[in-house]
Amino acid sequence: MGSYSIAVLPGDGIGPEVIGETVKVLRAVQESTPGLKLGFREYEAGARLWLRTGVALPDDVFEACKQADAILLGAFGLPDVRLPDGTEAHGEAMFKLRFQLDLYAGVRPIKLYPGVKGALAAGKPIDYVIVRENCEGLYASRGGGCLLRGEVATDTLIITREGTRKVTSYAFELARKRNGRPSDGKKIVTCVDKSNVLRSYAFFRRVYDEVAAEYPEIGRDYAYVDAMTAWQVLWPEQYDVVVAENMFGDIISDLAAATVGGMGMAPSADVGDRWGLFQPSHGTAPTIAGKGIANPIATILSGRMMLEWLAERHGDEEAAQAAAKIERAVEGLLGEGKVRTPDLGGTSSTAQVGDAIAAAVA
């Protein structure tokens, strides 16, 4: 108990930079938390590796990820590194991890921290979580779609009862643990779909209703995805937990990140019943890679989510305390406003932000 092996995949672009600061913070919180031991082992995967070898995620690296207690990822992908079918090569790594480890719940907290200027009108409290189904939907067609004579291309939307039940149950269990939506404290799960047009989404909603009936103490809510993109901007305080199909969940989580300071403030976890992978929601940002100005907070908060997951999975109070220390350190840093990267209106470097948070948790 309290000793964990972490497979670290720095990846591409700014990935190694933000991962470096996250490991720095995790090492610092380990030093200040007796009984917690984190062992880090770094592996290469992603688009750069594919360019050299034609393999984005070697079998031995995948096996190491399976054997680890958790996976910490920077970011995969480079826009010009593509497979013959036109898709980016990093998918060979990302989707292998998600699909073969059945990381069916993409958990994306959306929180506006004090001291961060959001894109919306002042005074809007934002604190909700998007739970994205991670292994089905349109993304399940990857590699299996049809391209006919260079004239017709198709991908199939796949919704299963079991997949929808698992991710919806995860969303309701998460709502049980939270304090409810900011507007009135009500615990509620919002189902985002397009059930008024497509049978697949009507089926998604029907399974959602079946699961919701098992949680009578949690409120039900519904939104068509097009309306949802407006309501996230106008009334974000009305949301607590949101559950959506893969593609829709991907889109609305990026919109949500823009309302709380940008992608550098958007952590995420991809979790299943056995494995957990933790990464920022943002991509590799190759235009700023190597400049030392990337915001590491999304990745650091993903590391906090990793500790929370380990704490719950293993009943480990030390890991829970460490996660809380990181959360308090980030809140303090942002509230003070002296150390922040350019995306948040500051002039600090990636390393300076990591140093400040590491000092706070230590």
What does this structure look like?
By secondary structure, the chain is of the alpha/beta class. The chain folds into 2 domains: 1-104 and 273-362, 3-Layer(aba) Sandwich (Isopropylmalate Dehydrogenase), CATH 3.40.718.10; 119-259, Isopropylmalate Dehydrogenase. The chain is built from 11 helices and 12 strands. The chain has helices at residues 15-31, 47-53, 59-67, 91-100, 161-177, 199-212, 225-234, 246-258, 297-314, 317-336, 350-361, and strands at 3-11, 37-42, 70-75, 105-111, 127-133, 146-148, 152-154, 188-193, 219-224, 241-244, 267-271, 276-280. The protein has a 10-stranded mixed beta sheet with strand order 2-1-3-12-11-4-5-10-8-9, sandwiched between helices. Strands 6-7 form a two-stranded antiparallel sheet. Helix 1 (15-31) runs parallel beside helix 11 (350-361), helix 7 (225-234) packs parallel to helix 8 and helix 10 crosses helix 11. The longest helix is centred in the C-terminal third of the chain and has 20 residues, at 317-336. The mean pLDDT is 95.
SSE map:
Blueprint: E1 3-11, H1 15-31, E2 37-42, H2 47-53, H3 59-67, E3 70-75, H4 91-100, E4 105-111, E5 127-133, E6 146-148, E7 152-154, H5 161-177, E8 188-193, H6 199-212, E9 219-224, H7 225-234, E10 241-244, H8 246-258, E11 267-271, E12 276-280, H9 297-314, H10 317-336, H11 350-361
Parallel strand pairs: 1-2, 1-3, 3-12, 5-10, 8-9, 8-10
Antiparallel strand pairs: 4-5, 4-11, 6-7, 11-12
- What is the CATH fold-level name of the largest domain? Isopropylmalate Dehydrogenase
CATH superfamily of the largest domain: Isopropylmalate Dehydrogenase
What is the terminal-to-terminal distance? 22 Å
CATH architect. name of the largest domain:
3-Layer(aba) Sandwich
Give a quick account of the main beta sheet: strands, pairing sense, barrel closure: 10 strands, mixed
Q: Count every beta strand, where a strand is a DSSP E run of 2 or more residues.
A: 12
What portion of residues belong to β-strands? 15-25%
